[in-house]
Amino acid sequence: GEDVEQSLFLSVREGDSSVINCTYTDSSSTYLYWYKQEPGAGLQLLTYIFSNMDMKQDQRLTVLLNKKDKHLSLRIADTQTGDSAIYFCAEKGTAAGNKLTFGGGTRVLVKP
Amino acid sequence: NAGVTQTPKFRVLKTGQSMTLLCAQDMNHEYMYWYRQDPGMGLRLIHYSVGEGTTAKGEVPDGYNVSRLKKQNFLLGLESAAPSQTSVYFCASSSPGQPTTEKLFFGSGTQLSVL
Q1: Which of A7, A43, A52 to mutate to test the interface with B (most CBs of B within 10 A)?
Q2: What is the model's pLDDT at position A1?
Q3: CA B61, CA A3: separation in Å to the nearest integer?
Q4: Where does the pLDDT of residue B98 fall: very low under 50, low under 70, confident under 90, or very high at 90 and above?
Q5: CB contact under 8 A, A102 and B94
Q6: Nearest 5°: phi and psi at A83?
Q7: What is the distance in angstroms between the CA of the first residue and the CA of the last residue of chain A?
Q8: Residues A12 and A111 sit within 8 Å (Cβ to Cβ)
């Protein structure tokens, strides 16, 4: 079945850029997503990218997609303490029902 | 704006007990999902539903049953709880369409411990 992999932890200083990486195996992925989970809460959609795009920018967020290598990254510019959270990469295949396959999540800790 | 509401928020069960987790959404979404979240394993899909009266198995369905008798509600049942079912359970809903409308809306989770 589909598999999505992420590194477990990232520590970054406030004001620096954060880069979170993700790899996936499903070559039929249509959309790839980044979700953010703050402590004690459910996941919230941060951004997404269509599989025929290679870059998408949304304010401080930049998503890069290398479809050949099945590699997705999320760059957060000027990282703030409020960006401390768990970030999940997810991919949507072609099956009906909007089913997403999630990675294990990357815990980002922003240090002042 | 209630969105997706899960009840209860916390529960402790003994091995072999049964319980039902309730998920309710007020966004008229067609699709609903139950995920479980375990440390380092992300979210894994248990069961999902693409419409009232229909359900389907996800990645880890064993030990769980679901029902979608009303469009706005999706129930997750544990008939005989096991310690391996200790987890945080998330319900989500979405609608078909463009990616911004297909995004999943999540509830705030249910922390379940099985002793």
Answers
A1: A43
A2: 60
A3: 17
A4: low
A5: no
A6: -85, -5
A7: 41
A8: yes
